[in-house]
Amino acid sequence: MTERPAEPWPPAAAGVLRLPSGRLVRGRGLRYPPPDGPVPAYALYLLDRRPPDVPWDAEWLRWPDFRLPRDRDRAHAALREVWVRAATERVEVACGGGRGRTGTALACLAVLDGVPAAAAVAFVRRHYDRRAVETPWQRRYVRRFPTP
Predict the structure, then answer these.
(1) Which end of the chain has fewer CB within 10 Å, C or N?
(2) CB 118 within 8 A of CB 139
(3) Nearest-10 crossing angle of helices 100-112, 72-85
(4) How confident is the model over 11-40, as pLDDT tens digits?
């Protein structure tokens, strides 16, 4: 028996970013209560310390606040997994505040989805949060993010 794909995020729900392909990904800050509504099927948490356990499938990527991921190869693989799963599942990307690391990850997902790397930060700021991707090195990371 094949499992039916989860219903996607409501497009107008808090923190939901629609990528050009139509994939929907929710970004959020873990310091705040989760938004009302459905829960993710899969999440990628971008924190320096292990996040609390959640009842859905989740991965932790060691990524200090205001910095870059500790392991860039693993980060690329994890973000690619988010992008692939977003085609059929509700996926969430989250850090402490939901702007710097989350915005950087969302911009990298936009690059994987076909947005030119030089335009990905502006795309995320326009469609997710105007203050996303907080540091110069995070912007540079997005510009240099490898595409498949």
Answers:
(1) N
(2) no
(3) 70
(4) 999 999 999 999 999 999 999 999 999 999
Tokens of residue 91, six digits: 């996926």
| pLDDT digits 0-9 by tens, 60-117 | 999 999 999 999 999 999 999 999 999 999 999 999 999 999 999 999 999 999 999 9
